[in-house]
Amino acid sequence: MNAGTATPFNIRFGPKEPRIGSDLWSSEHTSIRSARLVNYWRIVWLVVNPKQAIVLVAAGSGSRLGMGVPKAQVRIGDATILEHALRACLASRIDAHVCVVLPPGDDTLRAVVDHSGGPSVTVVEGGVTRQASVRAGLSTLPSTVRYVLVHDAARALTPPEVFRRVLQTLMDGAEAVTPGVAVADTIKSVSDGCVAATPARAGLRAIQTPQGFTLELLRRVHSETSDADITDDAMLVESLGVPVRVVEGHPEAFKVTTPLDLMLAEALVRRAREHAGEQQ
Ligand code: CTP
Ligand code: MG
User: Fold this and answer.
1) CA of 129 to the centre of ligand 1 (A)
2) Are 55 and 142 in contact (CB under 8 A)?
3) Three-class SS of residue 246?
4) 49-189+209-279 domain in CATH 3.90.550.10?
5) CB 161 within 8 A of CB 228
6) What spacing in Å lies between the alpha carbon of 130 and ligand 2's midpoint?
7) So where are the chain's domains?
8) Is the pTM of this model over 0.70?
9) Pairing verdict, β 176-182 and 96-102
10) Which among 2, 5, 16, 3 is positioned nearest to 164, based on CA atoms?
11) 29 falls in which pLDDT band (50, 70, 90)?
């Protein structure tokens, strides 16, 4: 993406934060020419020596959304779910290699990735389960990668600060990190049609993505566990007894799962567009 282009997306996410995850290119530059030169070398460095990666899983079918096309192809306003998700990854301004996991043979989505404009973006074909898709993404990551963020493309409108918070917590020493938000409803566990227990709401969090891990840990847990009921990567790490740090998520990082979620996402994108119009 051209850094100077004022897209509705840039406006949606507000002013730019400094880049994160790059030890080389963090200083301020006084002239446009030196800034351009530094940006050029930053991209070269990122391509040959990425320290962070984002695995963006977008290979699901979207059966609960029921639109008759893979969920990542479904539009929210002016762009597909995959375009929004990719823009969100790039807007985080994390110096990361991005691996997008797509449904096998989906040329429509491949074209979306080709036009993303990200400096280091690759595609891999996904598997039958989310876990298989994540594993496919992990298997392609360069050995220079230390931290990996696994993100659901279906959380298409995730604000940049959630990505940054997760990576910063890893850089501060955590091995596994997940964003979470407080739950509004009272949650009960139910068995045979009857309430079995009511966990205290204050201790509950609805878990989101991107979830962050050291690459070494995530590769290890994925190679050791294969279970159809695994719905996120933190579950795998928990099963090994490794602590998973919880950081604040964001209400707009909700997952587009049902038609009602899609209506909410469309309303948010429309509001951002109107806001952008007012600013011009
Ligand atoms: N996903 C994936 N590969 C799969 C299944 C899911 O990459 N085999 C991805 C989805 O594309 C999505 C994320 O995992 O970004 C979360 O999955 P979910 O919300 O369940 O999406 P779908 O599986 O597409 O939806 P559904 O379960 O309704 O079919
Ligand atoms: Mg699914």
Assistant:
1) 8
2) no
3) strand
4) yes
5) no
6) 7
7) 49-189+209-279
8) yes
9) unpaired
10) 16
11) low
CA 40 to chain centre: 25
Report the amino acid identity of residue 84.
H
* CA–CA distance, 25 with 29 (Å, rounded to integer): 10
- CA of 86 from ligand 1 middle (Å) equals 16
Instruction: Tell whether ligand 1 has an atom less than 6 A from the beta carbon of residue 54.
Output: no
pLDDT in tens, 174-188: 999 999 999 999 999
* Best residue for ligand 1 mutational test, from 73, 130, 231, 260 (most atoms within 8 Å of Cβ): 130
- Measured CA to CA, the distance from residue 15 to residue 191 in angstroms comes to 49
| DSSP state, residue 159 | -
Q: Determine the atom of ligand 1 nearest the C-alpha atom of 65.
A: 28
Copy the structure tokens of residue 24. Answer: 């080389």
At residue 101 the predicted structure's pLDDT band, cuts being 50, 70 and 90, is very high
Provide the residue type at 62 as one letter. G
Which residue is it, tokens 């007894």? 241
- Regarding the beta carbon of 151 and ligand 1, being less than 6 Å apart is answered no
Q: Residue written as tokens 């790059």?
A: 22
Q: Is the CB of 154 under 6 A from ligand 1?
A: yes
How many Å from the N-terminal Cα to the C-terminal Cα in the chain?
21
Helix (H) or strand (E) holding 107: helix 107-114
| CA proximity to 124, closest of 151, 145, 98 | 98
Is 180:206 a contact under the CB 8 Å cutoff?
yes
Closest C-alpha to 140, from 170, 98, 106 = 98
Contact (CB, 8 A) for 217 and 242: yes
**Minimal-distance CA residue to ligand 1 atom 21:** 60
